[in-house]
Amino acid sequence: ILNVEQSPQSLHVQEGDSTNFTCSFPSSNFYALHWYRWETAKSPEALFVMTLNGDEKKKGRISATLNTKEGYSYLYIKGSQPEDSATYLCALFTGNQFYFGTGTSLTVIP
Amino acid sequence: NAGVTQTPKFRILKIGQSMTLQCAQDMNHNYMYWYRQDPGMGLKLIYYSVGAGITDKGEVPNGYNVSRSTTEDFPLRLELAAPSQTSVYFCASSYGEGTNTEAFFGQGTRLTVV
Description:
By secondary structure, chain A is mainly β. Helices cover 0% and strands 55% of the residues of chain A. By secondary structure, chain B is an all-beta fold.
C-alpha cells in the first residue's frame, strides 16, 4: 500500500487569491500521478495525468508540477473563483491500482 | 457515451440482507474498480479487475465479492450487510495503458445499513 498524503486538509481563500496544495508520496515506484477535482454531490473528474519527473501540466488557471526525486506534486490555482470550490484528490497509479490521498477541500469565498 | 453507470443511487438495507451494486461502462476499458468513501476518509479500494475473468482484492475486501464476466460489467455483491458497510460506493474504470490511465467514475451509490 502506498501512503499518499495531501496538505492542507482544507483551505479557505478569498476570490482572486492564488493558492496551492501539496501531494506527497514515499517513493517513485508508480506509473503516473493523477489530480482529480471532486465537487460536492458529484463524482471525481480527472484534471491532470503526470508521468515524468519535472512534468508540468496546465489547464486554464490550474497547473500542476511533479518532482518524483523528492516525492511531491503541487497543484496551483491562479486567481481562485467560487466555482473552483471542490475537493482536490491526488492519486498514484501503479499500473493496475490507484492509491488516493484524502484530498484538500478548497472553499473560495466570494 | 454514457461513461460509467452505477445503480442504484441510494439504498437502505437491513442488517443481514444482501444486494448487488451494478456498474457498467461503455468505453471498452480494461480496468475497473470499486471504492468506498467514508466520512473524513479517502477512497478505499475494495476490489479491482484488469480484464474480463480477472479480479483482485484491494485494501478493504472483507464482506464483498465481485465478478467480471464481461468487459463492460463489474458488479459488487454484499452478502450479509453490516452497519460497517454504510458508505458511499464508487465504481471507476480506466483504459490503464500508455497515457490513457485516467479513471472515470460513476455517480456513486449511497448505502445505509440499519
